[in-house]
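Dock magnesium ion; give full complex structure.
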Amino acid sequence: MTASAEEGLTVAVAKGRILDEAIPLLGDIGIRAREDPLRTRKLILEADVAPGWPPVRLVLLRAQDVPTYLEYGAADAGIAGRDVLLEYPGEEWYEPLDLGIARCRLVVAAREDDPRAQATAPGSVRVATKFERIARRHFAKSGVRAEIVKLYGSMELAPLVGLADRIVDLVATGNTLRANGLRAVEDIADVSARLIVNKASMKMKASVVKEFVAKLRERVEASR
Ligand code: PRT
Ligand code: MG
């Protein structure tokens, strides 16, 4: 049975830095997991909620899996980075709110000593990234022939060992790029965590979903 068919609200949250910043946001609107989400090994957490609310459960997922749970209706709402949403091959959800947390940028980076590190350099480049779709779209738009090499992490290493000319990765402080002798040569997108909502849940659980979105929006706007 999908979440949409059950009672209450199932909220999928990306583990890692998004969860760290989402917990206080949810807490402020009265949704508090009964166990510490940062310590427990459980993947489903029942939450204490404000009076008048239906039951709320948090499901803790790998960031890249949040859109999948939403698409299949296994969660009513989700919190994931814009990077993950842009990379996902589909858009089977509503995105009513920018939560303004876990901010960073998607960039193209190259070695500091790369003489042709302009994004528009002619010829073809080899690009290492875990954001295959984003990278492909980006280089196609700039008319640069790009061979995309799929990696699962530590993209910063690739230009240092000659695996790729460029990387497409997330940058927050820039410390990781600097520490590895790389620099951003082009911006692709600003990234922050977004609230997404399953389309069927928006209809079938309209009142609770709308109240959830409204409360979060109020909380987010108060901190702007
Ligand atoms: O789980 P996974 O292996 O995919 O990623 P992760 O463990 O590196 O990150 P995680 O799970 O904690 O959070 C991933 C989500 O957080 C992303 O989908 C983004 O929406 C968001 N986010 C925000 C970031 C960053 N900031 C960030 N700086 N995700 C990753 N980084 C990494 C970046 O990839 C690079 O390696 O941090 C490094 C750069 O940070 P600075 O500060 O040195 O520039
Ligand atoms: Mg992680």
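Observed: The longest helix spans residues 206-222.
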